[in-house]
């Protein structure tokens, strides 16, 4: 099963985890009935078997989540919203800038009207400031292919971009980008960052970095910042042998 997105509502006590996959949406109620099915606790959500390429939850409104991708019949889903924990979906908009697009990564922060997205196929970052009804292209983070986006959970104007050429941040809704440099992720295009996530207060960030250079080990590592992204260090716990992590859950 290909997993394209992961979501947890921070205000839910049961710790339910949602997986957006190539064959629809799945859920695991970690705090309740995680072992009462033959699928290791994972249960299908709703009847939509679409390929959920892009997926994110609304952290301020439990039950609300967003998706993009491909229906089983082909084509693009556009940008969609669910207000019943993924049981049903409604299309909000077709994204046709400049041609039809399906999003491979999406993120939103404390202002649900501001949503960031990327197609996974280039350096364009898309933004909607009206809850997904309309979309525009912001500036490119260093001309690098965007893998994952993460909005600051306490200030939606701030967003991180994990790219094939490192980690970038913006404090003005993606209009301008700054490359994050330190001893761990400062070696130009030799470091690819595949995953990024931000704590609810916006102060703690986790990212997954992978050396691109053939002269380096291709095993990635988890890095952490506790000062809003100014400085970074490796975490004590690491995933041995991992080479690609696209989602870091706080």
Automatic annotation (TrEMBL):
What's the protein called, per UniProt? Putative glycosyl hydrolase BNR repeat-containing protein
Domain of life of the native organism? Archaea
Q: Which InterPro entries match?
A: BNR_rpt, Sortilin_N, WD40/YVTN_repeat-like_dom_sf
Which UniProt keywords are present, listed alphabetically? Hydrolase, Repeat
Q: Name one GO molecular function term.
A: hydrolase activity
Domain (Sortilin N-terminal) ranges = 124-244
Name the SUPFAM superfamilies for this protein: Oligoxyloglucan reducing end-specific cellobiohydrolase
